[in-house]
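User: Here's a protein and a ligand (copper (II) ion). What would the complex look like?
Assistant: Let me lay out the input and then the predicted complex.
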Amino acid sequence: MKRRNFIRAGIHAGAMTAMVSVLPLPSLAAGVRRYAITAAPTAAHLGPPDRPATSLWLYGGTSPGPLIEAWRGEELEVEFLNNLDVPTTMHWHGIRNLNEMDGVPDLTQAAIEPGERFTYRFPLQDAGSFWYHAHNKGWEQLARGLYGPLIVREPDEVSGPHDITLVADDWRLDDDYQLHEDSFGSLMDWSHQGRLGNWLTVNGTTDPEIPVAGGTVRLRLINAANARTLAFRLGNGAPMRIVALDGAPCAAFDAESVRVAPAQRVDVLASFDDGRTVLEEISTGEPIDAVRFVSTPHAAMPAPALADRPRSDRPRSDRPRSDRPDTVGARVIDIHMQGGAMGNLESARFEGETVPLRQLAREHSKLWAFNGIVGGYDHMLAELALGEVAVLRVRNDTRWEHAMHLHGHHFWVNSREFGVAGRDVLRDTYLMAPGETADLVFIADNPGLWLFHCHMMEHHAAGMGGVISVS
Ligand code: C2O
Ligand code: CU
C-alpha cells in the first residue's frame, strides 16, 4: 500500500493521436492527451491498513485522484462521469484555461448532474505543477477527497524517480477513521480559519515511504487541504531550492522550510545522497513526518511511466515565463476584505439589502465581504477590456490569513510569504497576512468570467469571492 506507485496511475488512451486542434496552439507538435475520470463514493485507507477504511468521494477510485500528466502544447481531454449523488464540476486550478472549461458551476457551465458526463478539453499553454478539484460546494467536496494532481511537462521532459509529486491534505477524522461530518458547515470553522483537519496524508497515505533517485530531485508540493497552510522542511536540515510557484518558474532561491497555503504549489529541488530522508510538516510547531524518502541509485529505479518522450539532460529554465507588466496607467481595482471572527465588519450588503453580520451568519452562513458586499458569483468586481493591465489592490482588513486565487490568469505580486523582504513572483494563489495590502498585477488577456476568491474553502463559501469579467 505504502509503496503504491502513485506516479503511474492514470489512463493514457490514445496518447498523441493526431487531431486537428480547434484552437491555435503553441508551435509544438500538438496532440490530444486523453483521460477518463469518474467521481464516485469510494472507501480508502487514509490511516494504517489495519484500521477502518474511510468513506470518501474520489476521482478514479484513489486518493488523490489519478495523476494527469501531459506535455505543454498538447490539448488535454478529460471525459468526466459523475457517479456521485450530488452535482459537481471539475476545475483545473492554475491553468490559463478556456473560460467554458474552467469548471465553475453557474458561472462557466451548468453543474454536472448525477449520472451525467461532461468532456473537458483545452490546450495546455504552460508547463508546471497544477491540480484539479471539484468546484461545487468545494468546502464539502474537497474535504471528501475530490482532487488530484495535474502535471504539465516541457516537451522534452520525462517523469521518473527524480521528479516526485506530493499531494498533501489534512482530513478531519473521528475515532473510527471516518470523516467528521457533523462539522460540515460549522460557523465556528467558517468564521475562523476554516475546516482544519487532524490527520495528514501525502499522496493519500499517512507517512508514506517514497523511493527517490539519488542526486537532485524535484519535489512538487501541492496543498489540497480545505484551509490549513502546511509547512515543510527536510529532516536532515538540507536546504530546499525553490524553483517554481503555482506552476510558474521563479528565479531560484534557497529556503530551510516552505509554507504552502491551500491550493498553492511549490516546486523545490532537494538533494538526496543520504539513503533516507524525512520530509517534515511543521505548521503546528510539532514536527511530524510527512514523507519518508528512500533514495536509490538512479539505475536501480523503475523506468519512467511514459517512455514515449525523448530524454533530455538540458537543465530546465528557471526564468519566469513573463515579465511583470508596467503598471503605469493600469486599471486599479480596490478590494477591501472584511469579516470573520474578531473582525470589523458590522453589516454587509447581501441580496440587495444591508444585513447585520450576526444575522448574516445565523440565517445565511455568510461572514465575509469584499467592499462591503457579501461575495457570490453575481458580485462583479471589475469589467476589464481584453489586454488591459490590471492591479487587484487587495487589503486584508481581517484577523486571518487568506489564500487569494484568481482564475484563468497568473498575477505578479511582491510576495511577503518568504520573509520581510518582498520577492516579486508570479503566482495564481497568494497567501496574505492579516493587515497586509498587496497588489496582484496581471494582464487581462483571457476573455471570460473569472472568479477571484479565497481558497480557504469555508471563507469562499461564506462570502469571500467575486467575479472579474474580461472581454
Ligand atoms: Cu482551486 Cu476557484 O479554485
Ligand atoms: Cu480566506
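Summary: Residues 91, 93, 133, 135, 263, 405, 407, 451, 453, 455 surround CU-O-CU linkage (ligand 1) (CB under 6 Å).
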